[in-house]
Amino acid sequence: MTASTNADMLARADAGAPEGLWLRAEQQSGGRGRLGRQWLSPIGNLYCSTIVRLRADDPPAHLLAFVAGLAVHDAVLAILPECGARLKWPNDVHIDGAKLAGILLERRRDVVVVGIGVNVALAPEVPGRTVTCLRDQGAMAQIDAAGVLELLADRFAARLFQWRASPPATLLEVWCAAAHKPGEAMIVQRGPVDRIDGVFDGLSADGALRLRLADGGMEIVSAGDVHLVA
Fold it and tell me: What tens-digit pLDDT sequence spans the chain (230 residues)?
């Protein structure tokens, strides 16, 4: 057990660990999600982190959230091709509205640590949220956390290459094809008392969420918590 694979990987990055290294834990005592949330970490699910070392000519680092989301989406579809997994801005993976995976990026100088959690064998109970796991969606019992990581590492490397080799617009276009449909209703919570209702209208050039309001106006959201409206 470890407290957090991201914390461990940041320490290894400071010690010179190379890009491409992956670290997996069987269990975490202090797993973290976006917006400071706890990431429940029972044995049987995947908890892992990797390093990206930024280069002078790299695209914007915050787009690595989309790289990671697409890589997880790719790995999930390799296991369950017909599951209908979708991406939720900025980088969650859902199946039929239930959360399957989450991603947390942390940057220190020229290093970005990408932390990924995937519910493989268990769907932890999270108040106020619907959660699922690969087993509940029909994945074979032989699929375990180590096997998911093997698939994920390959697909992350491919998406990382795409991020470096293609214009940012290409990456965002691919992400949109795997995510919300235009016109899908959603609520964005930007703070305890800052809630916006609207429909998805794509992404801006920098990856921010475009939310079309009821009065026809447009809200550009750079950070927030998205809730899809059934």
Answer: 666 889 999 999 999 999 999 999 887 565 555 545 555 567 889 999 999 999 999 999 999 999 999 999 999 999 999 999 999 998 899 999 899 999 999 999 999 999 999 999 999 887 778 999 999 999 988 899 999 999 999 999 999 999 999 999 999 999 999 998 889 999 998 877 888 999 999 999 999 999 999 898 999 999 888 888 76
Report the candidate in 228, 223, 172 with the shortest Cα–Cα distance to residue 199. Answer: 228
Cα dihedral 128→129→135→136 (10° resolution): 70
Torsion, CA 21, CA 74, CA 176, CA 50, rounded to 10: -10
Max CA pair span of the chain: 53
3-state class of 61 per DSSP? helix
What torsion do the CA atoms of 211, 185, 213, 220 make, to the nearest 10 degrees?
A: -10
Q: Can you tell me whether residue 84 is helix, strand or coil? A: coil
Name all contacts of 207-212 with Cβ < 8 Å and 24+ positions apart: 207/62, 207/63, 207/65, 207/66, 207/90, 207/168, 207/172, 209/89, 209/90, 211/186
- Per the CB < 8 A criterion, the answer to whether 99 and 34 are in contact is no
Tell me the whole-structure pTM to 2 decimals. 0.91
Distance from C-alpha of 77 to C-alpha of 176, rounded to nearest angstrom: 16
Residue bearing tokens 């769907």? 123
d(CA 175, CA 206): 13
Would you say 80 and 139 are in contact if contact means Cβ atoms under 8 Å apart? yes
